[in-house]
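Example S7 (structure tokens).
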């Protein structure tokens, strides 16, 4: 940041997201004082217009999509929203809000199952079709999307997280098959 980083972030809290986008796009290293000011500024993003924040995140995601070249923007948005869904499913909404990022970590395997459940919840019987349309055909694809966002600083990881955590977590085709209908003999509802 030009001048005092915390002052620049206080003037416009959205600069924290822009800094991440520019650092990712141009390969800049974010200096320590700027990073610390960004961390202080991050909780204030919730007070900004959701539309402004959404536009900045979309710009950043569009850049990641271009660099990755394998999956459309919708797949990245889905994984981002699905991560939030998974964190809330595993840690609960209150803990996710109050305990910070470390307490809300999910493993690659947990995220794969969470994304599977989120897809079924959102798209129902069309979940596999939608994901296939986005070129997401196995759990490794979830990992590639996640680590593309990690590399662009849109997501964080721990030292133990590895792209291999997403390898073959479940059999993709059968995980999205609808449950079998119970076999019952047809009984008349009423008799004449």
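Recovered sequence:
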């Amino acid at each position: 940041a030009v001048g005092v980083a915390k002052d620049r972030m206080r003037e416009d809290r959205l600069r924290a997201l822009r800094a991440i986008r520019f650092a990712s796009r141009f390969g800049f290293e974010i200096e320590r004082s700027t990073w610390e000011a960004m961390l202080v500024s991050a909780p204030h993003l919730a007070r900004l217009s959701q539309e402004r924040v959404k536009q900045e995140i979309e710009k950043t995601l569009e850049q990641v999509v271009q660099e990755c070249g394998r999956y459309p923007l919708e797949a990245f948005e889905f994984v981002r929203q699905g991560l939030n869904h998974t964190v809330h499913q595993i840690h609960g909404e209150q803990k996710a809000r109050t305990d910070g990022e470390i307490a809300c970590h999910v493993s690659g395997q947990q995220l794969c199952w969470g994304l599977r459940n989120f897809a079924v919840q959102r798209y129902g019987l069309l979940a596999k079709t939608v994901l296939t349309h986005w070129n997401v055909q196995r759990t490794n694809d979830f990992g590639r999307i996640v680590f593309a966002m990690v590399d662009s600083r849109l997501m964080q990881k721990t030292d133990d997280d590895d792209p291999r955590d997403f390898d073959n977590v479940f059999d993709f085709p059968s995980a999205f098959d609808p449950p079998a209908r119970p076999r019952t003999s047809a009984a008349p509802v009423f008799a004449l």
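Notes on this example. Residues 96-102 have pLDDT under 50 and may be disordered.
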